[in-house]
Write a structure and sequence with these properties.
globular, single chain, about 35% strand, 3 domains, 8 helices, Phage tail protein beta-alpha-beta fold, about 25% helix, three-stranded mixed sheet, Jelly Rolls, alpha+beta
Length: about 400
C-alpha cells in the first residue's frame, strides 16, 4: 500500500465515506506509517492524529493536557495490539521470526467425558452421533463439537426419576490444556468449558431439589429456567441451579454468567451478564446484578463493575486484556497453547497491556503482536516460550 493510497483512504475516512473494511485498513496503515518513524510523534502530532481518526482509538485513555512520555508509549503499544490483528489478516504474511525454532497451533475442541459408570470417552476421536446411553439419557456429539444430554424418546419421566433416585452419581467433562468444549446439559443449560477445566454433573436433574454441578477452572453458563415438582404435595417450583467451586457456591434460577476458578489464580471471579446470582462463600452472601463481577480470594469478596465482553472473550475466540500484566496474559496463552513460559527478567511480566488478539491464531502471530509494543521479545523452542 502506497502513501497515496493511505492519503486517499484518510480523506474518505475524514468524510465518513469508508466501508468497515476500509476503516480497518486505515487504522492499521496509520499505525504502520507511525512505526516506521524512528522518533515518537510530538504532542501536536498525537492530538492531530486523534482528531483525524475521530474515534479516539489510539489515545482515548490519555488526558490531552497531561500527556507524558511513559503514557504515550503505553498508548501506542495498546493501539498497536488492538489494530495489528486487523493489519495481519489483511496484508501481512511473514516467515517465522528469528528466535522461533518452531510454531505452535492454537487449541481446539478437545475433551474427555468420564461417565459415572467408569467409561471414558475421548471426544476428540469420537464420531458424531449417539456415543453412549446412561440411565435412559442419550449422549450425543454433533458436528459442531457440542455434547448433548437428552432423555431417550421412549423413556418416561418416572423411569428417569427412579433411576436418578437409586443412584445420584456424577459424570466428568474434562478439557486439557489447549482444549475447550460446549455441553448442553439435560435441563437445557448450556456450558462452555475453557482449557484445563473440569465440570462434574449428573446425567439428569429430574427429581432432584437442586440442579448442582461442580467446576474447577473456567466456564461460561447460560442456565435454563426449569420448574420441578417438590415436596409431599408435588408443588411446582423453580429449580435452582448451583455451581460449586473450591471457594464458593453460586446459585441461580436462569441467567448468564462466567466463573473463573483456576487453582493457580489468586481469586475466583464470577461475572454476571444477565439475570441475578447469589454467591455464598464461607457464610458471606452477596447478590450480583448484571455487569458486576465478584472477586473472591477465599478471605474477602469484592464486587466491582465489569465488562462482560472482557469476561467471555475466551468463549468468543479472543484474548482480550485491559491494563493487564503480561504475566497474566501469558498464563492464558500457556493454557490455550499448552506451553511452559519462562521469564529471563520477572519485571517484564509486570508490563501492563491493552488489546485484543484472535485466540485461534498460531502462537507466532500472537507473540509477534505483543512484540510490536517494543517492550518484550520471545523465543520459542518446542513447547517452551522464553520471555526476554
Amino acid at each position: 500500500m502506497t502513501r497515496k493510497d493511505i492519503d486517499d483512504l484518510w480523506q474518505r475516512y475524514a468524510d465518513d465515506k469508508v466501508t468497515p473494511k476500509e476503516k480497518a485498513i486505515m487504522d492499521a496503515a496509520f499505525l504502520k506509517y507511525m512505526s516506521q518513524d524512528e522518533t515518537l510523534p510530538t504532542e501536536k502530532e498525537l492530538i492531530d492524529a486523534d482528531k483525524r481518526i475521530g474515534t479516539g482509538l489510539v489515545y482515548k485513555d490519555i488526558p490531552i493536557k497531561k500527556i507524558n512520555w511513559p503514557f504515550r508509549i503505553a498508548a501506542a503499544a495498546a493501539a498497536t495490539i488492538i489494530c495489528l490483528s486487523i493489519w495481519s489478516l489483511l496484508f501481512v504474511k511473514t516467515p517465522l521470526p528469528t528466535g522461533y525454532v518452531n510454531d505452535i497451533n492454537p487449541g481446539g475442541y478437545r475433551a474427555t467425558l468420564l461417565l459415572a459408570s467408569g467409561t471414558s470417552i475421548d471426544l476428540s476421536n469420537a464420531k458424531n452421533g449417539k456415543i453412549a446411553v446412561d440411565k435412559n439419557i442419550e449422549i450425543i456429539k454433533n458436528a459442531d463439537g457440542e455434547l448433548i444430554f437428552k432423555v431417550q424418546s421412549d423413556s418416561t419421566t418416572a423411569s428417569v426419576v427412579s433411576n436418578q433416585k437409586n443412584s445420584i452419581s456424577l459424570n466428568t467433562l474434562s478439557t486439557p490444556k489447549g482444549g475447550q468444549y460446549h455441553i448442553a446439559l439435560p435441563d437445557g443449560t448450556n456450558v462452555w468449558l475453557n482449557a484445563a477445566s473440569t465440570l462434574k454433573f449428573p446425567s439428569s436433574f429430574l427429581g432432584l431439589a437442586n440442579r448442582s454441578v461442580e467446576l474447577n477452572g473456567e466456564a461460561y453458563f447460560e442456565v435454563a429456567q426449569v420448574k420441578s415438582l417438590f415436596g409431599l404435595k408435588k408443588r411446582a417450583r423453580k429449580q435452582p441451579f448451583i455451581v460449586k467451586t473450591a471457594t464458593q457456591e453460586v446459585t441461580v434460577l436462569g441467567t448468564h454468567f462466567n466463573i473463573n476458578s483456576y487453582t493457580d489464580e489468586p481469586a475466583t471471579k464470577t461475572t454476571l451478564l444477565e439475570g441475578s446470582v447469589k454467591i455464598d462463600a464461607k457464610g458471606n452472601n452477596i447478590i450480583l446484578s448484571p455487569n458486576q463481577q465478584a472477586t473472591n480470594t477465599g478471605h474477602t469478596i469484592q464486587v466491582n463493575k465489569a465488562d462482560p465482553d472482557l469476561a467471555i472473550a475466551w468463549k468468543n475466540g479472543e484474548f482480550m486484556f485491559r491494563n493487564e500484566p503480561l504475566a497474566d496474559i501469558m498464563k492464558k496463552i500457556a493454557r490455550w497453547y499448552d506451553v511452559k513460559v519462562i521469564y529471563e527478567n520477572k519485571s517484564t511480566g509486570q508490563i501492563n497491556l491493552n488489546g485484543s488478539i484472535k485466540r485461534f491464531s498460531k502462537i507466532s502471530e500472537v507473540l509477534c503482536m505483543l512484540e510490536l509494543t517494543g517492550q518484550m521479545h520471545f523465543k520459542v523452542e518446542g513447547r517452551r516460550i522464553t520471555v526476554q
